[in-house]
Amino acid sequence: MTSLVQVAVAGDVAEAEHLQELLTTAGIESHLEPVTEHDPDAHDDPPLKVLVPESDVDAARDAIEALSEAEEELDEV
Asked: In this structure, which topology does domain 4-76 adopt according to CATH?
């Protein structure tokens, strides 16, 4: 079994799903996991860890960095 490594922390579910979609587009399987134990009765939007197989860590970080740079360029326009 391949161990999973955290490559990012998303502030909410929407951001986590955005990162996961980016990684899927790059051909990288990813998983989401709460940063802390979540109270099932809570109705908030907890931060999530974005995890990828250890063998894909470098590619995942490169893909996330490329996305961040592209979004910054769009914000400047």
From this structure: Alpha-Beta Plaits (3.30.70)
User: What one-character-per-residue DSSP string does 39-52 give?
Assistant: -TT--S---EEEEE
Give the C-alpha distances (Å, rounded to integers) separating 75 from 16, 49, 69: 20, 25, 10
Put simply, whether the predicted model's pTM sits higher than 0.85 gets the answer no
Measure Cα distances from 67 to 2, 21, 35, 70 in Å.
26, 11, 22, 5
The token pair at 52 is 């990828």
Residue range 8-35, pLDDT digits in tens: 999 999 999 999 999 999 999 999 999 8
Torsion sign, CA atoms 21, 26, 31, 35: negative
- Cα(32)–Cα(27) distance, integer angstroms: 16
